[in-house]
Amino acid sequence: MTPRQAIRAVEILDHMLEFFGSGETWLQGEETDGKGNYCVLGAVTLCSPDPLSDSRVRLLLVHALNSQKSTVWAFNDRAKSYKSIKALILRARSMAVDRARADRRLRQPPRDPQRTSPVIQSRAA
Fold this sequence. Notes:
Elements: H1 3-20, H2 40-47, H3 51-65, H4 72-78, H5 82-107, H6 113-116, H7 118-124
């Protein structure tokens, strides 16, 4: 995932959080009820501008589940409250933010320790 793709994923996840609000539009058992309520995966589709972005956000949600040994669909349907869904979305968002930051750090040239380190400068004097 490139930094631009990671930033787009953050925007989609933020839109999902905004859409769900306090959980009043969160749904279990089906993708949508036709009345404006969605499960977490339905919200990904609703909030994604294209299928590729949709796939990236879905993959982030899978990774955010990490050791839960569950699918996102099953996790959504077994959740006792929206609170755990919100936590999952926030973990996925954090992963996307970390990815965007890591890529930026990798593209920066290595710093010259002789120029920036006061310890090295004082030893050279």
